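Example 3.2
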Amino acid sequence: MQFKTKYYYRSTTIMNSNRLFYKPNPYKIAIDVIAWIITLSILLIWRVSAEKYSIINYIYVFGGTLGYWLVVAYFFQRYRPRKRYRFLKELGIVLIVSLTVLATFYIGIEHFASIFKNVSLYVITSMILIMFIISYTIILTYQFYRYATNMDEELPQVEHRQSAEVLKKSKEIDSDELEDIRNEIKTYTDSGSLDFIEQHIDLRSSNTRLFASTTHFNFNTIRQYRYSALVNLAKLNSIRGINIIFNKVNEKLPDGGLWCICYESIYQLREYINKKYPPIIRNIVQVAAFFTKRILPKIALTSRLYFDITKGKNRYFSHTEILGRLYYCGFEVIAEGKTDTLNWVVARRKSNPKYLVHKRYGVIIKLPRVCKNGEIRPIYKMRTMYPYAEYIQSYMYRKSGTDDIGKIKNDMRITGWGRIFRKFWIDELPMIWNLVKGDLKLVGVRPVSMANFKTYPKYLQDKRIKVKPGLIPPMYYDMPKSDEDFYRSEERYIDRYLKSPLKTDIQYLFGALYNIFIKRARSH
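Structure, written as tokens:
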């Protein structure tokens, strides 16, 4: 069975910079037109209070000035598509265009007074000045957006490699050195942490290295393939660029190498606040902590500024996010533990990491889902899970299994507010856009991820890709009680739909609506 991923590319022709004629960037032209409309609105409000009879005249002048501005801007290469954005050059071009247009009108009014007899030089100057200020504001705003979203920052990538083994054969260290290592662990953490590490990491081996580092430099100095296990006693909460660190460790470890980390979770922060503060103050502190420790680092326009001020220290994570980051960077989790103050995870290097990008998690997300003919299409939903939750779906299927409708049992990836959204289908409202686009129909099997799709029996996989998925799944029509019932429910719907599409969808639609509104069937 082959699965096809549908990609949509936008091609832009970039001409030689020495040529006068080029294909302009339509977005830049649209921005200038919008800026001129704002300029006209400001001028009309001012002119209405001054000379009502001259409004039409200045609309004509505005049209001519806009057209001339676009020509001059085109001549000075303002609309040329560029491979690289240059902030100062953009500002310089707008300044040159403004001065050129203004100088042209000054000369025209001076030498062609009959043509410009109804034009006030003061208003023309005001028009171009306002346009200049608006253009500069747009450019500065866009530059801040690029800064805030790290648009110009190139993340370091790990070169894909073939299999690699540890360089040296392991030797057992002496008892004094082992005791020093144990004392070091107790100094940085606690006795519970020592017990966990000794259960999963061979501290007696010369191929195990312990350190407590939060800087990228120390990870870069580790000799490649020298150690079969690395243990960082420093908490992830004070490390900036966690994915970069994970990728670097992935590069340094041999195949099957172990990576042991610790961190404080958002739940431990809540417990600490509950113990320290009285009830009323406790709630205020929790809201403030959640906003500063969780929301600000995740919002696109505040994350860069947050990290520049705090240096990435004292953040808090969900357990889901840490596991997801590890899988994203080519590890698989083999052990998890918790002490009074810390969470511990041991992961094994499994594969090369994914291509590193700046991950953004907004309210609306796109999820790749298996659709008709095996095509992988983006399905829109409201985010109800913690960041990086999508990377541990297979892990959760193995760990927790599925319920009677094929969803993961006790899914820890779902946030508290996410469970409310799911119960009342609020998270599925953006899927209406997929309905409009034609990716989905009103009634049909659920669009599922590839990891979920692989849990279906082979015969049902083959049937599923014959039909388009839908917003309202057939399980709300016949209310299955087990995995087998769930599979039979989807198979029965598909067989009926292939024989009589319209009749089947109408029957299932009204039956599902009856169960939802009368019998109070709810999503999990």
